[in-house]
Amino acid sequence: MKSVDWVALYRETPWERIERIKQGVPVSWLDLTALEIGLPKPQLAAILGIKRQGRRDTGVHRFRELGVSERLLGLMRLLGQVRVMLDESGEPSDCNAALWFGNWLTCPLAALRGRKPAEFLDTMEGQNLLSELLAQMQSGGVA
User: Fold this and answer.
1) Which of 51, 50, 109, 110 is nearest to 75 (CA)?
2) What domain count does the chain have?
3) pLDDT one-digit tens code per residue, 75-130
4) Strand, helix or coil at 5?
5) What single DSSP character describes residue 92?
6) Which long-range contacts (CB under 8 A, 24 or more apart) does 136-141 make?
7) Residue 1 lies in a domain
8) 48 touches 71 (CB < 8 A)
């Protein structure tokens, strides 16, 4: 399975993201993301609110619904954000950002009133909240 550049997705412009979402994110990205963060694919699909597989365009199986592509891409951008955070913090490059992120998603956090970050991945507003929380963690704004 081909790797995805999380950091490049994180750094895409809004115009690039909108176009990618409208084209439909490849279904294989769900498989890859689940594998990378160490969560079973059915569990990750449920967390993201993904109920169906996609359509096949030009030989690539893609998600049909814009919301599904948007949520999966949003999760992948959060992975890119974590990788950038680790790089900027001087963490070793061999630190597995995806596995750290997968573990983080499943741990209740005081900053989320005892809820798990995974509970916020099914909406873009929730993903924005997690992005802000990660940024606060990097800057030391979250205890």
Assistant:
1) 50
2) 1
3) 999 999 999 998 888 766 667 889 999 999 999 999 999 999 999 999 999 999 99
4) coil
5) -
6) 136/111, 137/85, 138/85, 138/88, 138/89
7) no
8) yes
